[in-house]
Amino acid sequence: MVIADSAKPDVPLQSRRFGTGSAELRHLSAWPRHYGVTEAVMESTAQYWKPAWMELEPHLQLHRRFAAGELMLSFNPEPEQRA
Who contacts 14 (Cβ-Cβ below 8 Å, separation ≥6)? Predict the structure, then answer.
């Protein structure tokens, strides 16, 4: 995960890797909140994005496929529909 603040381009980026286990996913969720992050973009396209998305969703406004220019085309069902 990389944290950037477009309002402060002179501040170095923060980056950190996380594992895929339950404890690591909880750390993935807590780390950006520690820095005051409120919005995130996820670039993964395979099914591997789902556990991270579900962990982050209650805490951040999430988007997918930003770099590919498909941000507006990305459909993510609401939690009730996914259940």
Answer: 2, 3, 35
Quick one: angle between helices 49-56 and 22-34, nearest 10? 50
Q: Given the structure tokens 């002179």, which residue do they identify?
A: 10
- pLDDT for 34 equals 93
Measured CA to CA, the distance from residue 83 to residue 69 in angstroms comes to 28
Domain count, the chain: 1
Phi and psi torsions of 72, nearest 5°? -75, -20
Write down the pLDDT at residue 55. 94
- The string of pLDDT tens digits covering residues 23-73 is 999 999 999 999 999 988 887 667 788 899 999 999 998 888 665 665 555
Q: What are the distances in angstroms from CA 6 to CA 9, 10, 36, 48?
A: 6, 9, 13, 27
| Domain encompassing residue 20 | 2-82
